[in-house]
Design a protein that fits this description.
The complex is a heterodimer.
Chain A: H1 2-20, E1 26-34, H2 41-52, E2 61-67, E3 71-73, E4 79-80, H3 86-96, H4 101-104, H5 109-112, E5 123-125, E6 131-137
Parallel strand pairs in A: 1-2
Antiparallel strand pairs in A: 1-6, 3-4, 3-5
Helix pairs in contact in A: 1-2
Chain B: H1 3-12, E1 16-22, H2 29-41, E2 46-50, H3 57-62, E3 71-72, E4 75-76, E5 79-81, E6 84-88, H4 90-93, H5 102-114, E7 123-127, H6 134-142, E8 146-151, H7 155-170, E9 177-187, E10 190-192, H8 199-207, E11 211-216, H9 234-239
Parallel strand pairs in B: 1-7, 1-8, 2-6, 2-7, 8-9, 9-11
Antiparallel strand pairs in B: 3-4, 5-6, 9-10
Helix pairs in contact in B: 1-5, 5-6
Classes of the chains: A alpha+beta, B alpha/beta.
The complex binds zinc ion.
Protein backbone atom coordinates (compact mmCIF):
# COMPACT_ATOMS: atom_id res chain seq x y z
CA UNK A 1 0.00 0.00 0.00
CA UNK A 2 2.88 2.34 0.76
CA UNK A 3 3.63 2.42 -2.98
CA UNK A 4 0.64 4.76 -3.33
CA UNK A 5 2.29 7.38 -1.15
CA UNK A 6 5.50 7.05 -3.14
CA UNK A 7 3.56 7.48 -6.39
CA UNK A 8 1.87 10.56 -4.97
CA UNK A 9 5.23 12.08 -4.01
CA UNK A 10 6.44 11.58 -7.60
CA UNK A 11 3.31 13.14 -9.07
CA UNK A 12 3.42 16.12 -6.69
CA UNK A 13 7.02 16.67 -7.73
CA UNK A 14 6.01 16.59 -11.41
CA UNK A 15 3.25 19.12 -10.72
CA UNK A 16 5.71 21.48 -9.12
CA UNK A 17 8.45 20.91 -11.67
CA UNK A 18 6.14 21.44 -14.65
CA UNK A 19 4.69 24.67 -13.34
CA UNK A 20 8.13 26.00 -12.47
CA UNK A 21 9.47 25.16 -15.90
CA UNK A 22 6.28 26.04 -17.77
CA UNK A 23 6.05 22.58 -19.26
CA UNK A 24 2.67 21.12 -20.11
CA UNK A 25 3.47 17.59 -21.19
CA UNK A 26 5.94 15.22 -19.63
CA UNK A 27 6.86 12.16 -21.67
CA UNK A 28 8.64 10.15 -19.07
CA UNK A 29 9.85 10.31 -15.49
CA UNK A 30 12.69 8.11 -14.25
CA UNK A 31 12.92 7.35 -10.56
CA UNK A 32 15.23 5.17 -8.45
CA UNK A 33 14.29 3.21 -5.38
CA UNK A 34 16.69 1.36 -3.08
CA UNK A 35 16.43 -2.42 -3.43
CA UNK A 36 16.10 -3.09 0.30
CA UNK A 37 12.93 -1.00 0.48
CA UNK A 38 11.22 -3.89 -1.36
CA UNK A 39 8.77 -1.59 -3.08
CA UNK A 40 6.50 -3.53 -5.39
CA UNK A 41 7.30 -2.03 -8.77
CA UNK A 42 4.03 -3.22 -10.32
CA UNK A 43 1.94 -1.69 -7.55
CA UNK A 44 3.96 1.52 -7.76
CA UNK A 45 3.37 1.75 -11.50
CA UNK A 46 -0.32 0.91 -11.10
CA UNK A 47 -0.72 3.62 -8.44
CA UNK A 48 1.09 6.14 -10.63
CA UNK A 49 -1.07 5.27 -13.63
CA UNK A 50 -4.28 5.51 -11.60
CA UNK A 51 -3.36 8.91 -10.17
CA UNK A 52 -1.63 10.58 -13.10
CA UNK A 53 -4.85 11.44 -14.97
CA UNK A 54 -6.08 13.61 -12.12
CA UNK A 55 -3.03 15.82 -12.51
CA UNK A 56 -3.06 15.90 -16.33
CA UNK A 57 -0.11 13.61 -16.74
CA UNK A 58 -2.09 10.93 -18.58
CA UNK A 59 0.64 10.60 -21.19
CA UNK A 60 3.52 10.29 -18.75
CA UNK A 61 5.41 7.02 -18.45
CA UNK A 62 7.04 5.98 -15.20
CA UNK A 63 10.39 4.22 -15.37
CA UNK A 64 11.63 2.67 -12.15
CA UNK A 65 15.26 1.77 -11.48
CA UNK A 66 16.20 -0.40 -8.57
CA UNK A 67 19.45 0.79 -7.07
CA UNK A 68 21.78 -1.41 -5.08
CA UNK A 69 23.21 0.71 -2.31
CA UNK A 70 26.69 0.28 -0.88
CA UNK A 71 26.89 0.09 2.89
CA UNK A 72 29.90 1.43 4.71
CA UNK A 73 30.70 0.70 8.33
CA UNK A 74 32.08 3.76 10.10
CA UNK A 75 33.37 1.58 12.90
CA UNK A 76 35.53 -1.01 11.09
CA UNK A 77 35.67 0.63 7.66
CA UNK A 78 34.24 -2.38 5.80
CA UNK A 79 31.94 -1.97 2.86
CA UNK A 80 29.18 -4.44 2.09
CA UNK A 81 26.11 -4.96 -0.07
CA UNK A 82 22.44 -5.79 0.42
CA UNK A 83 23.29 -9.46 -0.13
CA UNK A 84 25.60 -9.41 2.87
CA UNK A 85 22.73 -8.35 5.11
CA UNK A 86 20.06 -10.43 3.36
CA UNK A 87 19.51 -12.67 6.39
CA UNK A 88 19.02 -9.62 8.61
CA UNK A 89 16.49 -8.14 6.20
CA UNK A 90 14.60 -11.45 6.08
CA UNK A 91 14.34 -11.47 9.88
CA UNK A 92 12.91 -7.96 9.98
CA UNK A 93 10.38 -8.88 7.31
CA UNK A 94 9.35 -11.96 9.28
CA UNK A 95 8.88 -9.83 12.36
CA UNK A 96 6.89 -7.03 10.73
CA UNK A 97 5.21 -8.46 7.65
CA UNK A 98 4.52 -6.55 4.46
CA UNK A 99 4.78 -3.01 5.80
CA UNK A 100 8.19 -3.49 7.27
CA UNK A 101 10.03 -0.40 8.53
CA UNK A 102 12.69 -0.27 5.80
CA UNK A 103 9.94 -0.45 3.21
CA UNK A 104 8.24 2.61 4.68
CA UNK A 105 11.37 4.53 5.62
CA UNK A 106 14.63 3.38 4.03
CA UNK A 107 16.48 5.93 6.17
CA UNK A 108 15.85 3.66 9.17
CA UNK A 109 18.55 1.31 7.87
CA UNK A 110 21.20 2.05 10.53
CA UNK A 111 18.63 1.44 13.26
CA UNK A 112 17.87 -2.06 12.04
CA UNK A 113 20.93 -3.45 10.30
CA UNK A 114 24.36 -4.10 11.72
CA UNK A 115 27.70 -4.43 9.99
CA UNK A 116 28.18 -8.14 9.14
CA UNK A 117 31.87 -7.85 10.08
CA UNK A 118 31.84 -6.09 13.44
CA UNK A 119 28.19 -5.85 14.48
CA UNK A 120 28.09 -2.04 14.63
CA UNK A 121 24.99 0.03 13.87
CA UNK A 122 27.23 2.85 12.76
CA UNK A 123 26.65 2.31 9.06
CA UNK A 124 26.28 4.73 6.23
CA UNK A 125 24.25 3.92 3.14
CA UNK A 126 24.86 5.36 -0.27
CA UNK A 127 21.67 6.28 -2.14
CA UNK A 128 19.07 5.21 0.38
CA UNK A 129 16.39 7.67 -0.65
CA UNK A 130 13.88 7.54 -3.46
CA UNK A 131 15.04 9.96 -6.11
CA UNK A 132 13.73 11.48 -9.31
CA UNK A 133 16.59 11.09 -11.75
CA UNK A 134 15.22 12.36 -15.02
CA UNK A 135 12.19 14.08 -16.46
CA UNK A 136 11.75 13.86 -20.25
CA UNK A 137 9.58 16.36 -22.08
CA UNK A 138 8.26 16.35 -25.61
CA UNK A 139 10.45 18.43 -27.88
CA UNK A 140 8.52 21.44 -29.14
CA UNK B 1 13.81 18.34 -5.88
CA UNK B 2 13.22 15.92 -3.08
CA UNK B 3 9.85 14.16 -3.51
CA UNK B 4 9.65 13.70 0.28
CA UNK B 5 9.95 17.43 0.92
CA UNK B 6 7.43 18.26 -1.79
CA UNK B 7 4.89 15.78 -0.45
CA UNK B 8 5.39 17.00 3.14
CA UNK B 9 4.73 20.60 2.04
CA UNK B 10 1.64 19.49 0.18
CA UNK B 11 0.25 17.61 3.18
CA UNK B 12 0.68 20.61 5.49
CA UNK B 13 -0.29 23.30 3.00
CA UNK B 14 -3.73 24.11 4.35
CA UNK B 15 -3.20 23.13 7.99
CA UNK B 16 -2.67 25.09 11.13
CA UNK B 17 0.67 23.88 12.53
CA UNK B 18 2.01 24.14 16.07
CA UNK B 19 5.57 23.05 16.85
CA UNK B 20 6.24 22.30 20.48
CA UNK B 21 9.94 22.93 21.02
CA UNK B 22 12.38 22.99 23.87
CA UNK B 23 15.95 24.14 24.00
CA UNK B 24 16.84 21.31 26.34
CA UNK B 25 15.63 17.79 27.05
CA UNK B 26 13.83 16.78 30.21
CA UNK B 27 11.59 19.82 30.54
CA UNK B 28 8.34 17.96 29.95
CA UNK B 29 7.91 18.96 26.30
CA UNK B 30 6.23 15.70 25.29
CA UNK B 31 3.74 15.90 28.12
CA UNK B 32 2.86 19.48 27.22
CA UNK B 33 2.55 18.50 23.52
CA UNK B 34 0.25 15.62 24.39
CA UNK B 35 -2.03 17.68 26.64
CA UNK B 36 -2.04 20.62 24.23
CA UNK B 37 -3.09 18.26 21.41
CA UNK B 38 -5.77 16.64 23.60
CA UNK B 39 -7.20 20.09 24.41
CA UNK B 40 -7.28 21.16 20.78
CA UNK B 41 -8.80 17.91 19.62
CA UNK B 42 -11.99 18.84 21.50
CA UNK B 43 -12.60 21.80 19.21
CA UNK B 44 -10.90 21.02 15.90
CA UNK B 45 -9.60 17.95 14.09
CA UNK B 46 -6.13 17.58 15.51
CA UNK B 47 -3.26 15.21 14.75
CA UNK B 48 -0.21 14.97 16.99
CA UNK B 49 2.94 13.89 15.14
CA UNK B 50 5.75 12.80 17.44
CA UNK B 51 8.95 13.93 15.74
CA UNK B 52 11.03 13.36 18.85
CA UNK B 53 12.00 10.03 17.38
CA UNK B 54 14.57 9.15 19.99
CA UNK B 55 12.11 9.64 22.81
CA UNK B 56 8.86 8.46 21.18
CA UNK B 57 7.20 9.52 24.43
CA UNK B 58 3.74 10.07 23.01
CA UNK B 59 3.29 6.33 22.49
CA UNK B 60 4.04 5.80 26.18
CA UNK B 61 1.85 8.68 27.33
CA UNK B 62 -1.16 7.47 25.36
CA UNK B 63 -0.53 3.77 25.97
CA UNK B 64 -0.13 2.76 22.33
CA UNK B 65 3.37 1.32 22.49
CA UNK B 66 2.52 -2.06 21.08
CA UNK B 67 0.41 -0.95 18.17
CA UNK B 68 1.49 -0.71 14.56
CA UNK B 69 0.05 1.93 12.22
CA UNK B 70 -2.16 0.75 9.39
CA UNK B 71 -0.83 1.75 6.00
CA UNK B 72 -3.44 2.59 3.38
CA UNK B 73 -3.40 4.16 -0.07
CA UNK B 74 -3.64 7.50 1.71
CA UNK B 75 -0.63 6.84 3.88
CA UNK B 76 0.07 6.10 7.53
CA UNK B 77 -3.30 6.04 9.30
CA UNK B 78 -3.15 7.90 12.63
CA UNK B 79 -4.16 6.11 15.83
CA UNK B 80 -7.32 7.77 17.10
CA UNK B 81 -7.88 8.29 20.80
CA UNK B 82 -11.06 10.16 21.66
CA UNK B 83 -10.88 12.00 18.37
CA UNK B 84 -7.20 12.94 18.59
CA UNK B 85 -5.04 11.47 15.83
CA UNK B 86 -1.54 10.35 16.76
CA UNK B 87 1.36 9.48 14.46
CA UNK B 88 4.49 8.06 16.01
CA UNK B 89 7.56 6.25 14.75
CA UNK B 90 6.81 3.80 17.52
CA UNK B 91 3.89 2.65 15.37
CA UNK B 92 6.33 1.84 12.56
CA UNK B 93 9.18 0.21 14.49
CA UNK B 94 7.18 -1.29 17.39
CA UNK B 95 8.90 -0.79 20.70
CA UNK B 96 12.36 -0.92 19.17
CA UNK B 97 15.08 1.57 20.01
CA UNK B 98 16.04 3.89 17.19
CA UNK B 99 19.55 5.33 17.00
CA UNK B 100 20.27 7.23 13.82
CA UNK B 101 22.85 9.58 12.37
CA UNK B 102 21.62 13.16 11.87
CA UNK B 103 20.92 13.04 8.15
CA UNK B 104 18.92 9.83 8.48
CA UNK B 105 16.98 11.38 11.34
CA UNK B 106 16.00 14.22 9.05
CA UNK B 107 14.84 11.79 6.37
CA UNK B 108 12.80 9.79 8.86
CA UNK B 109 11.23 12.97 10.20
CA UNK B 110 10.30 14.11 6.70
CA UNK B 111 8.93 10.64 5.90
CA UNK B 112 6.74 10.71 8.99
CA UNK B 113 5.19 13.96 7.82
CA UNK B 114 4.91 13.25 4.13
CA UNK B 115 3.64 9.68 4.36
CA UNK B 116 1.01 10.41 7.02
CA UNK B 117 -2.66 10.47 6.18
CA UNK B 118 -3.55 14.00 7.22
CA UNK B 119 -6.75 14.37 5.19
CA UNK B 120 -8.69 14.51 8.42
CA UNK B 121 -6.58 17.11 10.17
CA UNK B 122 -7.17 20.82 10.56
CA UNK B 123 -4.46 21.32 13.14
CA UNK B 124 -1.17 19.43 13.22
CA UNK B 125 0.85 19.52 16.44
CA UNK B 126 4.51 18.50 16.23
CA UNK B 127 6.36 17.24 19.26
CA UNK B 128 9.84 18.38 18.14
CA UNK B 129 13.13 16.83 19.23
CA UNK B 130 14.76 18.83 22.03
CA UNK B 131 17.56 21.25 21.36
CA UNK B 132 18.76 23.35 18.49
CA UNK B 133 19.11 20.61 15.94
CA UNK B 134 18.71 20.33 12.20
CA UNK B 135 15.15 19.13 12.69
CA UNK B 136 14.15 22.78 13.06
CA UNK B 137 15.62 23.49 9.63
CA UNK B 138 13.59 20.66 8.15
CA UNK B 139 10.44 22.00 9.73
CA UNK B 140 11.19 25.41 8.20
CA UNK B 141 11.66 23.74 4.87
CA UNK B 142 8.23 22.13 4.82
CA UNK B 143 5.81 24.51 6.54
CA UNK B 144 4.95 27.69 8.39
CA UNK B 145 4.27 27.04 12.06
CA UNK B 146 3.52 28.54 15.45
CA UNK B 147 6.28 27.64 17.86
CA UNK B 148 5.42 26.91 21.46
CA UNK B 149 8.57 26.82 23.58
CA UNK B 150 8.69 24.72 26.72
CA UNK B 151 11.22 25.30 29.48
CA UNK B 152 11.61 24.95 33.24
CA UNK B 153 12.52 27.89 35.50
CA UNK B 154 16.04 26.46 35.81
CA UNK B 155 18.75 28.86 34.64
CA UNK B 156 20.44 26.25 32.46
CA UNK B 157 17.24 25.70 30.54
CA UNK B 158 16.37 29.37 30.25
CA UNK B 159 19.81 30.27 28.85
CA UNK B 160 19.35 27.90 25.95
CA UNK B 161 15.79 29.11 25.45
CA UNK B 162 17.22 32.52 24.74
CA UNK B 163 19.32 31.03 21.92
CA UNK B 164 16.26 29.33 20.51
CA UNK B 165 14.34 32.62 20.65
CA UNK B 166 17.22 34.40 18.93
CA UNK B 167 17.31 31.77 16.21
CA UNK B 168 13.56 31.99 15.62
CA UNK B 169 13.80 35.77 15.63
CA UNK B 170 16.56 35.60 12.99
CA UNK B 171 14.47 33.45 10.70
CA UNK B 172 11.47 35.72 11.35
CA UNK B 173 9.34 33.14 13.11
CA UNK B 174 7.41 34.53 16.07
CA UNK B 175 6.77 32.13 18.92
CA UNK B 176 3.32 32.31 20.42
CA UNK B 177 3.95 30.95 23.89
CA UNK B 178 6.75 30.43 26.32
CA UNK B 179 5.59 27.67 28.62
CA UNK B 180 7.40 27.51 31.95
CA UNK B 181 6.78 23.95 33.05
CA UNK B 182 7.25 22.78 36.65
CA UNK B 183 7.03 26.42 37.72
CA UNK B 184 5.36 25.79 41.10
CA UNK B 185 3.48 23.34 43.29
CA UNK B 186 0.21 24.30 44.84
CA UNK B 187 0.47 22.62 48.26
CA UNK B 188 -2.60 23.19 50.41
CA UNK B 189 -3.07 26.60 48.82
CA UNK B 190 0.53 27.60 49.36
CA UNK B 191 2.53 28.20 46.20
CA UNK B 192 6.00 26.65 46.38
CA UNK B 193 8.58 27.30 43.66
CA UNK B 194 11.16 24.51 43.99
CA UNK B 195 13.13 25.51 40.88
CA UNK B 196 13.20 29.23 41.60
CA UNK B 197 10.93 31.94 40.31
CA UNK B 198 10.32 32.80 36.68
CA UNK B 199 11.91 36.25 36.73
CA UNK B 200 14.35 35.51 33.94
CA UNK B 201 11.71 33.78 31.84
CA UNK B 202 9.46 36.80 32.29
CA UNK B 203 12.22 39.12 31.07
CA UNK B 204 12.72 36.93 28.02
CA UNK B 205 9.03 36.83 27.24
CA UNK B 206 8.88 40.62 27.39
CA UNK B 207 12.00 41.10 25.30
CA UNK B 208 10.81 38.73 22.59
CA UNK B 209 7.16 39.63 22.94
CA UNK B 210 5.96 36.09 23.66
CA UNK B 211 3.11 35.23 26.04
CA UNK B 212 4.32 33.44 29.14
CA UNK B 213 2.38 30.76 30.91
CA UNK B 214 3.41 28.97 34.08
CA UNK B 215 2.48 25.32 34.48
CA UNK B 216 2.39 23.72 37.92
CA UNK B 217 3.90 20.41 39.01
CA UNK B 218 1.20 17.81 39.50
CA UNK B 219 2.46 14.73 41.38
CA UNK B 220 -0.61 12.81 40.18
CA UNK B 221 0.49 12.99 36.56
CA UNK B 222 2.43 9.72 36.85
CA UNK B 223 -0.84 7.85 37.35
CA UNK B 224 -1.94 8.98 33.92
CA UNK B 225 1.06 7.77 31.94
CA UNK B 226 -0.50 5.36 29.46
CA UNK B 227 -3.87 7.16 29.54
CA UNK B 228 -2.89 10.80 29.41
CA UNK B 229 -6.11 11.62 27.53
CA UNK B 230 -8.02 10.92 30.76
CA UNK B 231 -6.02 13.42 32.79
CA UNK B 232 -8.06 16.35 33.99
CA UNK B 233 -5.83 17.92 36.61
CA UNK B 234 -4.11 21.23 37.18
CA UNK B 235 -1.72 21.08 34.23
CA UNK B 236 -4.41 20.77 31.61
CA UNK B 237 -6.58 23.35 33.38
CA UNK B 238 -3.74 25.82 33.18
CA UNK B 239 -3.01 24.93 29.55
CA UNK B 240 -6.64 25.43 28.62
CA UNK B 241 -6.26 29.13 29.38
CA UNK B 242 -4.32 29.25 26.09
CA UNK B 243 -7.40 28.35 24.07
ZN1 LIG C 1 31.92 -2.90 10.92
Amino acid sequence: MHEWSVAESVIRTLVQWSSKNRVIEIKKVVISVPSFSMLDVDVLREAFDMMKGEYSFSGTLLEINIKEPVFKCENCDSTFSVNDVGDQIEKIKLNFGEEYPLHLMPALVPAFLVCPYCGSHDIEVSSQSITIDKIEVEKS
Amino acid sequence: MNPLTILAREKLKTKKVTAVMSAKGGVGKSLISALFAVLHSKREKTVLIDLDIHGMSSAKLFGIENKLHNITRDGIAPFYIQGLGIITLNGIVKDRYVILPGSNRGDVMESLISYSDLRNAEHVVFDMPPGLSDEILILNRVTKYNPMIVTTPSKVSIKTVEQLLQFLNDIKVTPKYLVVNMAYINYENTIIRPFGDSTYAKKLSERYNVSLIEIPIDPNIEDFVGRIHEYNGEIIKKLSTLL
